[in-house]
Amino acid sequence: MNVAVWLKSLGLEQYVPVFDDNAIDAEILPRLTAEDLKEIGVGALGHRKRILEAIAAMEGQPEVVSAKPASASPILMSASVERFGEPGRPREAERRQLTVMFVDLVGSTALATRLDPEEMRDLLRQFQNTTAGEVLRFEGHVAKLMGDGALAYFGWPQAHEDEAERAVRAALAVVSAVNRLSVKGGQQLSVRVGIATGVVVVGDLIGIGSAQENAVVGETPNLAARLQAIAEPGTVVISELTYRLIGNLFEVTSIRPQKLAGFDTPVSAFKVIGEGRAESRFEALHADESAPLTGREHDIALLLDRWRLAASGEGQVVELFGEAGIGKSRILQELREHLKDEAHTRLRYYCSPYHVETALYPVTDQLLRAGDIRRTDPPDRQLDCLEQLLAGSTKYPNEAIPLIAALLSIPTEGRYPKVDLMAQKQKTRTFELLIEQLEALARSQPVLMLLEDAHFLDPTSAELFDQIAGRIQQLPVLLIATSRPEGAVRWSGLPHATFLTLNRLSRAQAASIIAAMTGGKQLPAAVLDQILSKTEGVPLFVEELTKVVLESGLLQMRDGELVLAGPLPPLAVPATLHDSLMARLDRLDSIRDVAQVAAVIGREFTHELLAAATGLPELELERATNQLVTSGLFPPWQ
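The structure assignment produced for this chain is given below.
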């Protein structure tokens, strides 16, 4: 079990570094006491009780483990305990968007004829453990292990904002990990993977005893199975919707549409080659889109003011907060556009939800991109690129290059002496070298540092950026860190720090985005009102829903005006927003029933009607509705 994932499922991700520093793993977890939690720094009584209750719930579910067949992966067993809420309360079936992944071990029949049955059993267990481990690493759900095959869901029982991306990353990791498994006789193992995304009904329990499983009903699992069947060994094939959801995050090639069993028309599919080369997630997911930035004039003016101060030598720090889709990355793009004609150095750091436990991930990622260092290149070329990157920015290259090479896992044998320092001393000296490099860049020209998604900072990177934030006050450096509202304020004690929160747009500002997307043509009043009401001033929602309307065939041009082609149905949630909205709802698991009832009733409900439909006591209902309002999910989408 991944303890970090478990803590996040409880809403206590702030304690991940504490548990990590104290070496608390899945084996130690059940032995924790209230005093232990207090000793390691879990100060709030409520937090300690929540952790202890969750541990007790895990220990109270032995039947989940014993219900698995003997060949089941131990990783899958622990995941089953981890992912369901209260004991004895499985989730009811529900309709939601899901990304489904089928994995098949290539050539298993031939292997079974060649290997002893016990050897084959051990091999299948290795395959199952490897596959389950990679799926769980990306917080997917292993639905079924079928000997030489595996079925996984991304988006249930817990949704994230990027399920399609998680599925593809997990698939690539499975392909790589299975290739490294050892087989008697030296034969290399490989898998083929199919992935599809779509709306399904998931959660119905079928079967009994060890055969019981949570079934998925819909076209999506059938499509994923068919795509897996046409994949070549060692490859990942994805559906068209999955491809649209991952944008340019990955390099893909199109497969000629072909007739698949059970599908009436030829199906488009895509083969995933590997990671894309886009500089940022925003650019990868919005490469062909440039909706106008609206309602952010004061925010841009503030950032430009802080840039002027920084460029004059008074270094500045800005913490930029805002919910998902509110436009944090978009406003940074606009700032870069304003500064494109000014001489400056730009350093961009991206934090990742997949690397919150990888020390200095945003720093290593930035160095690799800045030096054009590819992991697939020979070590000598990687080292050449690193030397060129650090040229002139350090006083002691013979010490700096081996340390930074060690950080990037680049071999230096034969060219530099081996780094021989204690771990803490090596970290301290590496920090000094990175800050020294920043100071060297700042002596040449002003530096714009962009730290995106700082709520995903790993503890070591957080420590480094805390030092940087304190050091830049006397340097021509502007550090802007973006974060979700739940992210901690990091630098409130610094006199050169500014805090900026992006609010939702007004109806007039949202309407101006829509007008720009329609080329200035006015939408029918009923359509405009639905878009504005449903999107609640979140720019990303406005753009995606407007795009769906324009592409849906609901409108037609008549006498130079856009008019409805027929009756106006309720506008559906775009596929690109399903995961984001479902993730918000899943984070409110204790009040999700209230949200769903409110969504069914619609926007014209009364408090009395909601109380009657839910049957909740007054105080509990008031708490639930207040939580929905602050979450941004209320009023609900219909």
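Interim note for the steering committee: Residues 357 and 458 are 6 Å apart (CA to CA). Confidence is low (pLDDT under 50) at residues 59-89, 634-638.
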